[in-house]
Amino acid sequence: MDLSDEDRRLLAALEAGLEAVPRPYAALGRRAGLSEEETIARLKRLVADGVVRRLGIVVRHHELGYGANAMVVWDVPDELLEEAGVRLAALSFVTLCYSRPRRLPEWRYNLFTMIHGRDREVVRAAVEEAARAAALTDIAREVLFSRRRFKQEGARYFPTEAAA
Fold it and tell me: Residue 135, by phi and psi: left (phi above 0), alpha (psi -120 to 50) or beta?
């Protein structure tokens, strides 16, 4: 896809992330030299064209007091996968929920959820609540706690020197 100069400025500004302000797209637009309306319209087009795959925030859970992070992997029967995913994603304490194909025989799990808590016991209790809410109490699952933190960043659309 051919990007206009305005698109390139917008993508370069987006690499720094959205500001936590009442009108984040207006602030993003200012950084790119665009109006709020033009910023939103261009972002919609860039998403529709697949240039931008998603917009979201990076939450630094540890800094907010969440010391335990777990990826919960579930072995959900295929016919129940969509309904279970919808139920799990609706829970306020589930921050990610997505499906992936199984990799048999080594990996039997097909549904993945991320749960953060103040400590491991809080997370384990949330996993049990999630299992009940999604009717997955009898489904095989594993709770994989993080042992290290990695720096999370937003998307990079240009090499570092081009974005500067």
Answer: left
pLDDT in tens, 53-80: 877 666 676 777 778 899 999 999 999 9
* 28 to 6, 122, 144: CA distances (angstroms): 12, 37, 36
DSSP H or E stretch at residue 28: helix 24-32
Q: How far apart are CA 72 and CA 143, in angstroms?
A: 5
Strand duo 68-74 + 94-99: pairing: unpaired
Is 158 a domain residue?
Answer: no
Tokens 């709770």 map to which residue? Answer: 143
Q: Which amino acid is located at 135 in the chain?
A: A
87: amino acid identity, one letter: R
Backbone angles phi, psi at 92, to 5 degrees: -65, -25
Judge whether 112 and 99 are in contact, CB under 8 Å.
yes
CATH code: domain of residue 53: 1.10.10
Whether 33 and 108 map to the same domain: the answer is no
- pTM for the whole thing? 0.64
| Beta strands, E only, 9-82 | 68-74
